[in-house]
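Progress narrative, work stream C.
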Amino acid sequence: MILFASVTPLGVLAGALVGSFADNIACAVLTAIAAGTFIYVGLLEIAAKELRDRTAVIPKAVAMIVGYVIMALLAVWY
């Protein structure tokens, strides 16, 4: 359990070190890997289980699409 709990602070430390010593390409690659991880978990782990249950599929799909649109707008705005 201690190993599992220490992974996030170690990841933050590694990202901060790479961000301070590396160029923009390394930061872009790390950001892309992080975004891909979130998309993977969101689509394959969470959305698939939620949409497998056939109750309220349309509101769940609409909420998912609205969430992706909001995050895309935040990414463009930022």
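Work stream C, second folded protein:
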Amino acid sequence: MRAIEADAQRRWRAAILISAVVDVDPTEAGWRDRPVLVMHGLKDDRIEERWFRLALASLRDVGAAVSAREDPGADHFF
């Protein structure tokens, strides 16, 4: 996953990958004023919607500029 993140940052300087399998603390002050897009498929049977909501709240609490997109028909792999 680190290689994917490094590639994304090289190609898209504003891209940061966040995943349950990546060791990223969303409460770190480094998120302040960063634009963050959090996406979630509502048919995801691996990550419950409450974790999506918690991630949004945590990022907003530290001052990240959060946008959220929910796809009612998407699963975990959209």
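Helices lie at 2-11, 49-61. No further action is required on this item.
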